[in-house]
Amino acid sequence: MRILIAEDDRLTADTLAKRLKEEHYAADVCYNGTDALDYLLSADYDVAVLDIMMPGMDGIEVLRRLREAGRHTPVLLLTARDAVSDRVNGLNAGADDYLVKPFAYEELSARLRVLTRRSKQTSNRFSIADLIVDCDTRTVTRAGKNIALTSREFALLEYMIRNKGHVLSRSQITEHVWSYEYEGASNMIDVYIRNLRRKIDDGRDVRLIHTVRYAGYVLREEA
Predict the structure, then answer these.
(1) Residue 101 carries which DSSP code?
(2) Which of 48, 143, 168, 199 has CB atoms 3.0–4.6 Å from 4's, for a disulfide?
(3) Model confidence band, residue 49 (pLDDT cutoffs 50, 70, 90)
């Protein structure tokens, strides 16, 4: 899952990004509203965390322009002000949730999970054929047997199963599973796809991970 953190306090922003990455999210960071809008319009984020008071453009204006552009990315607003008018303005502009500083990271993390669950479906448990992926407990089973994945393998599988049946290009996978700062090898996606196939498909009559020539990869049930 890919998250944008837009917060002008660099220590707060960088700390949040670090904690999110420890939970295996791909997290991008910017420190002003102008950059935040550019990020949100140029990439497909699963959720955005916007501070209201930012230089260049405040968080509510970023949110208004994002919604005017027809983008429905779930947005959590952060503010140091607990005025009812701030909450009302944010919600009227299209915010999905609102958190007042100071806050506990655990609460932010829980709210982000709720927002992504609300935007995708009512559960964070996905299945295809006999493969089950639970994004809350970060467990994977196939035919009832546990499958151990690395954090990056899990992130890739999560993105694929959330979009099962849809062909995902290499650029889409890179955008959602890796953040902008990633500078890995050009064949890294192939390596992770190969690892997932070995763990999930090897020895199975029904293969789930498929290559679509010149297009990308897709998770679907085929004999």
Answers:
(1) S
(2) 48
(3) very high
